[in-house]
Amino acid sequence: MLDKAINYNFSDIFPKDIKDDFLFNLDTYVLFLERLSINPSLFFDKWSDSNTLTIIDKYWKKNTKADWKWSLSFPFFSLLENYVQYINHPIIIGFSGLPGSGKSTLGFWIDSVAKELSLDIKVISLDDFYLPGAKMDIAMKGNPWNVPRGFPGSHSLDLLHQSLDKFLKTGVLSSPTFDKSLRDGKGDRSGWCELKSKVLILEGWFVGCEPVSDLLKLDDSVENEPNFSLTQNEKYYRILIQESLLEYSKIWKKFDKIWHLKSSDFNNTILWKSQQEDEMIKLKGSGLKGNNLTNFIRMIQTSIPQQSLSFINSDTTVEINQNRRINNLKTTQYHF
């Protein structure tokens, strides 16, 4: 397969300004496209077409880099189009990435472009299945990070199971919506939506994460890391969260594939989450800040073992650095 990828004259297909924005090997990129059942030449012609650009350009964030477009957004969307064309039943794709990595930005772009092109593709967030405010407060009471939501155990899993099972049978999803800006940033449900689709993407920061078998051994090794020792209460809650993940793993089994937007360094989420909350404050006037933000970041770093979140068993992995630039691409073979 690698030999086939190299036989493409990449320079003849993609112009210099696109190639120069890539941080990875060009043969790796062509191989990535081929394993997704994407012809590089047809792919470039489609996504550089002036009519297509008129539709998609208005949904990008300002200064979106070429690598984000050409090695994540366009390939992923092309794959979703293939599902719509060749699969005759509803499917769910899981999409995982640390908070602030860009999942929601990509999801908004996919949702918007799919609507413009009248394609049966929808994106929802695991966050929309957070417990209602009052129940959330009870479930989160006493957690060592003093966060209002976020870790496994803060979602309505029975409702999520029912909603996804109904979708897989009928193509119709009934889902709550959750507004994180409500209740002074603690968040609450803000309504319900019903959608019909053929392909559903479910995104979340620990989507695809499985429980580990050697938690106590991992906790001992974490304690030996400078400035990162776990409190006794954190250790206790990590056990509870591992038990919760057993239930979440049943959700992951409903997925056809999992994509992982993987951070090159776990600590990148410190910057990303801070930026994410700053944007929410600017847009909605409310968000996490100060100690509340610090506590939330600590929860991200310690509630689930970092190796679980960094090595999700995904079908496709797109690795990004601190600036959300793409370092590497890896995928299994897709057949249609």
CATH topology tier name of the largest domain:
Rossmann fold
**Strand order, biggest sheet?**
2-5-1-6-7-8
Q: Count structural domains.
A: 2
Q: Which H/E pattern describes the elements?
A: HHHHHHHEHEHHEEEHHEHHHEE
- Termini separation comes to 17 Å
Low confidence ranges: 1-7, 223-227
**What top-tier CATH class of the largest domain fits best?**
Alpha Beta
Mean pLDDT across residues:
89
Would you mind describing this structure in some detail?
- By secondary structure, the protein is an alpha/beta fold.
- The chain folds into two domains: 86 residues, no CATH class; 204 residues, P-loop containing nucleotide triphosphate hydrolases (Rossmann fold, 3-Layer(aba) Sandwich), CATH 3.40.50.
- It is 48% helix and 16% strand.
- The chain contains 15 helices and eight strands.
- The strands form two sheets. It has a six-stranded mixed β-sheet with strand order 2-5-1-6-7-8. Strands 3-4 form a two-stranded antiparallel ribbon.
- Strand 3 and strand 4 form a beta hairpin.
- The longest helix is centred in the N-terminal third of the chain and has 21 residues.
- The protein is globular, with a radius of gyration of 20 Å.
- The N terminus is likely disordered.
Task: Spell out the blueprint of helices and strands.
Blueprint: H1 2-6, H2 10-13, H3 16-19, H4 26-35, H5 40-47, H6 50-56, H7 66-86, E1 91-97, H8 103-116, E2 121-125, H9 133-140, H10 157-170, E3 172-179, E4 188-196, E5 199-204, H11 215-223, H12 232-252, E6 257-263, H13 268-284, H14 290-302, H15 306-310, E7 316-320, E8 326-331
Parallel strand pairs: 1-5, 1-6, 2-5, 6-7
Antiparallel strand pairs: 3-4, 7-8
